[in-house]
């Protein structure tokens, strides 16, 4: 028998390690960039497909400041898309002032959810009831 020559704990450890690394988000791809009205901030939206077949996609929002070219991750979420590529209908970003942006994430089968992003001394991200 196979397990007679092999140690079962090592086989189980290998199986669980492989299953943990195969789930979650895959490689991120740039969806779009949105420059603020004063050109001092940029919201960068990236989408990552799931590593699992038919799994959810992931949307990550980054903020980049003109003075600092390093982007800071400010939000990440799962977003169901039924295998259809994301469009501007699924992910909508709008700057409403120089330091305030609204983001709406529209899924196919789940309720929409939105974000209110305000940039002061620090970045504030709050959920929106409607978008």
Topology overview:
Elements: H1 2-5, H2 8-22, E1 25-35, E2 41-50, E3 57-65, E4 68-79, E5 91-95, E6 100-105, E7 113-119, E8 123-128
Antiparallel strand pairs: 1-2, 2-3, 3-4, 5-6, 6-7, 7-8
Explain the overall architecture.
The chain has 131 residues and is mainly beta. The protein is 15% helix and 50% strand. The chain is built from two helices and eight strands; from the N terminus they run ααββββββββ. The strands form two sheets. Strands 1-2-3-4 form a four-stranded antiparallel beta sheet, with no helix packed on it. It has a four-stranded antiparallel beta sheet with strand order 5-6-7-8, with no helix packed on it. A hairpin with a 3-residue loop joins strand 7 (113-119) and strand 8. The longest helix is centred in the first third of the chain and has 15 residues, at 8-22. The termini are far apart. The model has no long low-confidence stretch (mean pLDDT 80).
Oligomer: single chain
Number of individual domains: 1
Which CATH architecture would you pick?
Beta Barrel
Number of helices: 2
**SSE topology string:** HHEEEEEEEE
Q: In which range does the helix fraction lie? A: 10-25%
């Amino acid at each position: 028998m196979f397990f007679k020559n092999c140690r079962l704990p090592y086989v189980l450890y290998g199986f669980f390690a492989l299953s943990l690394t195969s789930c979650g988000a895959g490689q991120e791809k740039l969806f779009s960039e949105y420059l603020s009205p004063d050109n001092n901030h940029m919201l960068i939206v990236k989408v990552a497909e799931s590593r699992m077949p038919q799994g959810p996609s992931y949307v990550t929002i980054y903020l980049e400041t003109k003075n600092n070219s390093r982007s800071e991750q400010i939000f990440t979420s799962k977003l169901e898309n039924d295998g259809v590529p994301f469009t501007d209908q699924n992910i909508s970003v709008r700057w409403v002032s120089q330091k305030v942006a609204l983001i709406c994430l529209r899924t196919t089968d789940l309720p929409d959810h939105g974000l209110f992003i305000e940039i002061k001394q620090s970045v504030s991200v709050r959920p929106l009831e409607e978008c």
